[in-house]
Amino acid sequence: MALTRRQRRTAIRGTQYGVLLVVILVLVFATNWGDIQRGFFDLDAARQLFPDVLSVALVNTVKYTVLGFVFGLVLGLVLALMRLSSVPPYRWIATVYIEFFRGVPALLVFLAFGFGVPIAFHIRFTTLSTVVVALGLVGAAYMAETIRAGIQAVPTGQMEAARSLGMSQLRAMVSIVIPQAFRIVLPPLTNELILLAKDSSLVYLLGLTGTEYELTKYGRDAMNTVQSMTPLIVAGLCYLIITIPLSYLSRYLERRTGGKSKRGLEVLS
Q1: pLDDT of amino acid 101
Q2: Does residue 192 contact residue 139 with C-beta atoms inside 8 Å?
Q3: What is the torsion angle, in degrees rounded to the nearest 10, for the CA atoms of residue 250, residue 253, residue 259 and residue 261?
Q4: Nearby residues of 228 by Cβ (< 8 Å), 6 or more positions away
Q5: Cα 232 to Cα 75, 199, 256, distances in angstroms
Q6: Nearest partner of 124 among 113, 109, 138, judged by Cα
Q7: If DSSP codes are grouped into helix, strand and coil, which group holds residue 73?
Q8: Taking the mean position of all CA atoms in its chain, how far away is CA 174?
Q9: Distances (CA, A) of 161 to 86, 147, 166, 171
């Protein structure tokens, strides 16, 4: 007797659950859990990381990320306004900058400012300034396009109404348009902050002192003293302390804006 469509769906779903259960049971009984525990979750090795992993590595990661984001946000706003300018050279400069820094890996930017620029111009940067500039330059290229989309998503009637009240174009842009644009682009800007937090791990290339370590460098060096991946697991969990709340914040802001951020970003397409 032929099965109905609903019965076929039920049978297929039951088969999938059965296969999944078999795979899980095979993994449970075939895995050497002692080796897993020693290789990834060594509690004695994890205890050795505290409190430095929080008071030094996590704090430095947050500091690098926030300062790089602030620098990138300011530069990104300037680039977005240049992209929207009626002056062609401004648009050309902003376009070249955005396409360049969106096209090259952040790794190259860190190497350039950590080693290339000091050699070429005989100047020295501190680790903090190198990280902030490198993160900011890369982040600004992405944030500029996000902010530009947000500005273009603000109804043109807002600018026209402000001008009819006697405001200059600059004052109307600063007082009326940009605040509304930022309300639209807050969720994607929060996502950019998450990306910068992860890109801050590239600071390990610069040759850090112990007080300058961020999470990835701290975890990597700690592996030299213990034969376990536990330090990297702890570092990863510390990254989650940063990124998970930001992810929830991004979703909350997206709900608060009523989907305007998605409509705003459609301007880019």
Answers
A1: 93
A2: yes
A3: -70
A4: 38, 39, 40, 42, 45
A5: 33, 16, 36
A6: 113
A7: helix
A8: 26
A9: 20, 21, 9, 12
Please report the sign of the dihedral spanned by the C-alpha atoms of residue 181, residue 183, residue 187, residue 193.
positive
3-state helix, strand, coil in the chain (%, to 5): 85, 0, 15
Can you identify the CATH homologous superfamily of domain 43-268?
MetI-like (1.10.3720.10)
d(CA 19, CA 5) in angstroms, rounded, equals: 21
Measured distance CA(133)–CA(110) in Å, rounded: 9
List the pLDDT tens digit at each of the 269 positions of the chain.
Answer: 566 778 788 888 888 988 999 998 888 787 776 767 677 777 787 888 888 888 888 999 999 999 999 999 999 999 999 998 888 999 999 999 999 999 999 889 998 888 888 888 888 888 888 899 999 999 999 999 999 988 888 887 877 787 777 777 778 887 888 888 888 888 888 889 999 998 888 888 887 777 888 888 888 888 888 777 888 888 888 999 888 998 888 888 777 765 544 444 444 44
Single out the residue of 234, 261, 256 nearest to residue 58, CA to CA: 234
CA distances to 55, 130, 253 from 69, in Å:
21, 13, 18
Cα 106 to Cα 71, 149, 202: the distances in Å are 16, 23, 8
Tell me the torsion sign for CA atoms 140, 142, 145, 149: negative
**Residue type present at position 254:** E
C-alpha to C-alpha distance for 162 and 172, rounded to whole angstroms: 6
42's CB contacts (< 8 A; 6+ apart) are: 226, 228, 230
